[in-house]
Write a structure and sequence with these properties.
By secondary structure, the protein is mainly alpha-helical. Helices cover 41% and strands 3% of the residues. Strands 1-2 form a two-stranded antiparallel sheet.
Length: 120
């Protein structure tokens, strides 16, 4: 299993070298991200550690986000991809249950910065 994981990780880095970098979101502030998560009601659908009331079960729990390789099982988990996903999930995965919530670019950066603080 470890060998398989190592091979897959290596292949992903070949496809997207940003996977080897830290998950730093330009212009994102994690503290403001928690507030944005509450404001947009993300916790109505997701369990999000550290966000009061975020206990929804309609979407997957967002625990250990920084360790995830893919967003929506489709695109590499990079800061730019995550910001795009938060702003326009239907554009990345048409038909996904995650709605477009009108999240601004700045709020999406803050939310992404917060999610990357969630480690295993």
């Amino acid at each position: 299993m470890l060998a398989c994981t190592t091979i897959v990780t290596g292949c992903l880095r070949d496809l997207d070298p940003r996977l080897g970098e830290r998950h730093t979101v330009a212009g994102g502030k994690a503290k403001e991200g928690a507030a944005a998560i509450r404001a947009y009601g993300c916790g109505n659908c997701h369990v999000i550690p550290g966000v009061r009331g975020a206990r929804g079960r309609a979407g997957p729990p967002l625990v250990a986000w920084s360790g995830r390789r893919f967003i929506a099982g489709r695109v590499p988990n990079t800061p730019d991809q995550l910001v795009s996903w938060i702003i326009h999930p239907q554009g990345i995965k048409p038909g996904t249950a995650m709605p477009d919530l009108g999240v601004t670019d700045q709020d999406a950066r803050h939310i992404a910065a917060y999610l990357y603080t969630l480690k295993e």
